[in-house]
Design goal:
By secondary structure, this protein is α+β, with helices and mostly antiparallel strands. It has 12 helices and 28 strands. The chain is 16% helix and 26% strand.
Length: 575
């Protein structure tokens, strides 16, 4: 869904639209900017002016009310359109005509909790600011409107069976921000963009692919000290945790936040330390899932009586996708041209911060002061070459490499393109659903890793390709672009294919080829997939990853299902 704007409907109610992506013809070029032409007087500034005009955009006279899902569902049409986002209900009637993604796209969230739809397309958009004049109230749990008194007889079919149900649980299920150790949240399968099908593809019990991350208890923490150092210890109980799953953010000499990425969850330790510590830190991770963050005491020899005071978000253990974007101010250190309209940008994080990005995860980028405009980017690494262990350790958490496609009329990328060296840019903490189970499936368990990418959808595939080749896995990389000039790293891909001739195959498909192009042409289609992608086999399992504009991704997943590939063997990255 896209940016926010509006118009007043009948009866004083208002129509408002959330940012979204309109249904579009699948495009293999990698251009995700699916917008619709708005009528004159429907720009973002027009929406801002409408919000300050004194017109009641809430339809409730400005009074905040509690709204149940049943009540929300009644406001599901043009002229009377409400939706819920992150627990709040908005009257978006007036915004319909202002929505950059079109009215039909906004109507997908009519009368429902549209948080998941919103997050799939533009989680980074600051909708609370843009829709603040449309706030109706909070979305609350539904309550039965009538309870039968206990002294009235129950129908025979509803009478309790005292033998089988001696206890009844009348408490409503709730999401705990900080779950207790005895009631750790149950992990559920990650949602992904998938094409609808009449029947789900069955998966054999012996399937090597992860159905859901293993359930883990809530982490615990402790601290230790000697005369010179302070150690924060977090017990994640996840045996595969590495320093690459641990973000450390220092806002001041005594304010420290540690965020551990544990499968599809994040755990946060956030404290103001009792005394100042030195700049920098060391992160260690043990096989039993213990994470240590080692800090140097500013005053050696002093014994601390306590660690300090906890701050907002401390102890939070939630799904990664539910975290609010949090930004770190970084500096641009290098830019180079990859194609006529794409740049490779090197960003360095502050010296007192460690910002590693797990494989397949993305970060949001925005310019300082541009809180309402941010876009997701998947870091690509320094290039198409294997780093040594020393280089990887030095790089980890200190630098972020981004492939940025410049759109002349874009809200963000022209500004990124104009940044000088040492300019500041804001980078969010990592987000994503490509858990370690999926990384293992794609780079270790699989016989062949199949990658289908359109345009800048190449970004999550770079690190996956190198990791799979390092593990001697076969990789089939089918890359869709408009023209030869649009192919990033074309020479480097050719060189990599020569170096790994028995493992790596790269197929380029152009939708607007020049005369004489010897390769594949057109767009993603069943005939093309049948020609290159092997059939599913239990003896030689395939894992497939797809990334590109949403229409491309949905069509590709649908075609893969039609030729027999199971959903659990496919992963769709956010474009």
């Amino acid at each position: 869904m896209g940016g926010v704007m509006g118009c007043v409907g009948k009866g004083g109610t208002t129509v408002v639209t959330l940012p979204s992506t309109p249904a579009a013809t699948p495009d293999s070029s990698g251009n995700p900017r699916n917008k619709v032409a708005l009528r004159p007087g429907r720009s973002l500034m027009d929406w801002v002016r409408l919000g300050h005009s004194g017109v009641d955009l809430t339809g409730t006279g400005g009074k905040l009310v509690d709204v149940t899902p049943q009540q929300l569902a009644k406001h599901n049409k043009r002229g009377d359109l409400w939706m819920s986002l992150r627990g709040k209900v908005y009257n978006v009637t007036a915004y319909l005509e202002f929505h950059p993604g079109g009215e039909d796209e906004l109507m997908r969230g009519a009368g429902i909790d549209a948080t998941t739809l919103f997050n799939e397309v533009h989680k980074w958009v600051n909708f609370e600011t843009m829709l603040q004049k449309c706030l109706v109230g909070q979305l609350v749990e539904a309550r039965p409107f009538f309870h039968k008194p206990s002294f009235l007889p129950l129908p025979k079919a509803l009478k309790p069976n005292n033998n089988n149900n001696k206890k009844s649980d009348s408490s409503a299920s709730k999401t705990l921000v900080v779950p207790s150790p005895s009631r750790a949240p149950v992990a559920s399968p990650e949602t992904s963009i998938s094409a609808p099908s009449p029947d789900p593809v069955s998966t054999p019990a012996t399937s090597p692919w992860p159905l859901a991350p293993a359930q883990l208890p809530t982490p615990k923490y402790d601290w230790f000290q000697n005369d010179t150092h302070l150690t924060l210890a977090i017990y994640t109980r996840w045996s595969e945790v590495t320093p690459g799953h641990v973000v450390v953010v220092r806002r001041a000499t005594q304010d420290i936040k540690v965020v551990c990425y544990i499968q599809n969850m994040t755990y946060t330790l956030h404290v103001t330390l009792n005394k100042p510590v030195r700049e920098g830190c060391e992160v260690r991770a043990g096989k039993a899932g213990k994470v240590e963050v080692v800090l140097g005491k500013l005053q050696a020899g002093q014994r601390w009586s306590s660690l300090g005071k906890t701050l907002e978000g401390h102890g939070q253990y939630i799904k990664t996708r539910d975290r609010e974007p949090e930004y770190v101010r970084c500096r641009v250190k290098k830019k180079e041209n990859l194609t006529h309209d794409t740049r490779l940008m090197l960003v360095e994080v502050p010296s007192d911060t460690l910002l590693p990005v797990p494989m397949g995860y993305h970060v949001y980028i925005r310019l300082p002061g541009g809180e309402n405009v941010a876009r997701p980017y998947t870091p690509v690494g320094p290039g198409l070459k294997q780093e040594s262990e020393e280089e990887e350790k030095e790089e980890l958490g200190r630098r972020v490499h981004l492939l940025v496609k410049i759109y002349p009329d874009g809200a963000l990328t022209p500004g990124l393109d104009e940044l000088e060296m040492e300019s500041e840019v804001e980078v969010s903490l990592p987000e994503g659903t490509f858990t370690q189970d999926r990384v293992t499936a794609a780079t270790t368990i699989t016989h062949t890793l199949v990658l289908l990418a359109a345009g800048t959808g190449i970004t999550p595939m770079i690190r996956l390709t190198l990791a799979a080749l390092n593990n001697k896995r076969k990789v089939l990389f089918i890359l869709f672009n408009k023209t030869e000039e649009d192919i990033p790293w074309r020479k480097e891909l050719s060189t990599l294919m020569e170096q790994h001739s028995s493992l790596l195959t790269v197929i380029h498909v152009l939708s607007q080829p020049a005369e004489g192009w010897p390769g594949e042409t057109g767009r993603v289609r069943e005939e093309l997939l049948e020609k290159y992608v092997p059939r599913p086999s239990s003896q030689q399992p395939l894992y497939l990853c797809v990334c590109g504009p949403t229409p491309f991704t949905k069509l590709t997943l649908s075609l893969l299902r039609e030729v027999g590939h199971s959903e659990v063997a496919c992963h769709a990255f956010q474009s």
